[in-house]
């Protein structure tokens, strides 16, 4: 396997090959166990532009950039000139003029990155773009850290039974993971309320009742109920946390039914006692905090690939 991998941008997992995914996992593991070192021979300046709320992804990218020796230039959307009508494209041209070479962006618009990387002849932005999450589209760094966490646990993907549970239609994490895990040979199940399921997911796995598979799965991947994306929806008006938890959540009873070596994952943030019984967040099968730890190392591997793709920091 070739360990040096290069991308111009990192906006989606959809077109990654299995070899590329395994190389990124290998490199992230190298950063984690300190066998992989990257020395920048020229300064690199990065900005993290988070137009939607974030704790994990924003801080994790910041940490990964600093560990790689990148200079992180603060950017606060709430005090930026975006609020005076400046477009995202013009904001990036501005940051580029100031010396920023790489931007990590989270934005509520699906595919926002297309207009930043597929330029017209009269556009000259050269910024490397990494997607920190776009609407209900993609969340490639979360997906890659999830894949790393699963691979660490099982050493393979082929034939693993993985249930993705909950608010699937709103979830960019689910969309990225179903694409990647399906390519990698995992057997996917989807569970949760019917109104948060879209038949277009049928091509990746089976729509099931969680109770029919709970004792067979290797991984329960729980998703946050994204109330902020359901405003005005009649199901949102009738939402009951207790009822959701009983029907679709990881209750103590379901936890006891899981296989001995099965694991539970959640991208965070958790709604305690909704997706997850509160006492299980730190339980033996929970990999919630391992996912976050792995996120720093996986983002280092992803950033390294983008630095190489753009010949930044003296990397080829
Ligand atoms: N998983 C995730 O994206 O969390 P944040 O919204 O806190 O970044």
In terms of topology, how is this protein built?
Blueprint: H1 18-32, E1 45-50, H2 56-67, E2 71-73, H3 88-98, E3 102-107, H4 114-117, E4 128-134, H5 140-154, E5 161-165, H6 172-183, E6 187-191, E7 205-207, H7 210-213, E8 219-222, H8 234-237, H9 241-248, H10 252-257, E9 263-265, H11 288-309
Parallel strand pairs: 1-2, 1-3, 3-4, 5-6, 5-8, 6-7, 8-9
Helix pairs in contact: 1-5, 1-11, 2-11, 5-6, 5-11
The structure holds phosphoric acid mono(formamide)ester.
The site of phosphoric acid mono(formamide)ester has 10 residues, from α2.
GO biological process, one term: 'de novo' pyrimidine nucleobase biosynthetic process
Family: Belongs to the aspartate/ornithine carbamoyltransferase superfamily. ATCase family.
GO molecular function: amino acid binding; aspartate carbamoyltransferase activity
